[in-house]
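Hello K.,

You asked for the raw outputs rather than the summary table, so here they are, unedited. I folded two proteins back to back in the same session to keep the settings identical. This is the first:
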Amino acid sequence: LRRHRQVTRAPGFTGGTLDRADRVRHEPELLAAALADPRARLLVLDSLDPVLDADGRLTWTGLAEAQGELLFLGHDQGVPRFVSALPDGMPVPLGRSPAMFALLDRFAAPDAANYASARGLVFWHGRNRFCANCGAPTRITHAGWARHCPECGAEHFPRVEPVVIMLAEQGDRALLGRQPSWPPGRYSALAGFLEVGEAIEEAVRRETFEEAGIRLGAVRYVASQPWPFPASLMVACIGEALNDDIRVDANELEDARWFTREEVCQALARDPAAPFLGPPPYAIAHTLLTAWVEGGG
């Protein structure tokens, strides 16, 4: 998988300030010290949504405010940081809150990354309260980074779901698609989950052909991004198109079109004359389109 030239803009939800401090997860005395540290702070969430202060920063409070078991996020400049698991019996929100998306453009980059870690961890615990092997209730271990089943002994660890997100390029054009649920006029990169036993390049080629009928040759990697809705890792790539006749899979897309580099530049600049609405800056599709424009293909 050939590497694209370095991107000039870091993807959203990257650049966090947390030292994950893996030793604390394995040494109970270090966890006890972190919990007893009077400087320790708890991330304030509204269910799974961030709570921002007047300056648009994440809100932190004392550990005494925790409503559920404490999960250790790491250290930030030596200060222990925690988030609270959802209280027992509280349902796990499955959708993405419109109110939360309205906050994303206000996030400072490190806050967005730290929030992504916290949200993903809280969501995972809420969805894994029972053992996938025997069905018995599990308990939190490893400072919040694992669950143990006392019945069968199985250990469960947080997982991420890899997703490929890609541009097919042909000369000075890139292929973009849109889903019917998106805002009017928005086009973005195609995307899909990796399947079992599949390499990144294979998934990029398969998804592009399935969704738009475009065959790809060489595939190059651009960047990656944790996407905490709920727990994906977006792997951004560019593939060389071998044909240009689009055949849209109506089950996946509402439309797909070729756009020129100039048109993509207009959309990234939010030019009112642009032929489409581009992805928001915090999405890795924005990073991918920017890399394609700046890389000259």
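The second followed immediately with the same parameters:
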Amino acid sequence: FVGELSNEKGVPTLLRAYESLGRRRPPLVLVGRRTPDTPTQFPDGAEVHLGWPHEHVLAAFRSCLFAVLPSVVPDACPTTVLEAMASGRPVVTTSVGGIVDMIVDGESGLLVPPGDARELAAAMSRVLVDGDLRARLGVGAQEKVRAFTASVVAERLEAVYARIAPRPRRVDRHRGSRNGQPTMTEAS
């Protein structure tokens, strides 16, 4: 997990889901910053790291089994989801906000309802026990994240602007003039 250690980012839900996985669960690494609602107690196996430099966060994504980003608020474009995807890791996350545009459920990650610890635990368990699923979701994540690179996004925005922007007007010198001025016509 990477993000604010808060209710909005789904940390209490994540901790309940993690505890329900039982004793044979891998370590849960939480990287972020404390907020006024950061839990004070963490289950056995949970490691909390505060204030990591960005390069350490990216290295953690590259070495994890999967990322869990269970936000309960509708973030428009959560960067941590994109960073985990770019690292080739499956993402277990919630079907809220811009996340639903980033993750295709079952192809580039797994989506669960926000705030649902039972569904989150089930998705985490699936990814933990199924190495083929982890590999397939990781590859799908790397493919899907390409649609969110700066060059691709800029190209799509330019295409939208080209469709909705008014066409420039040009002078049509062949049609005559009014009051000594060339007549303006729409460009074709």
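The chain has seven helices and eight strands.

Happy to rerun anything if the numbers look odd on your end.

Regards,
P.
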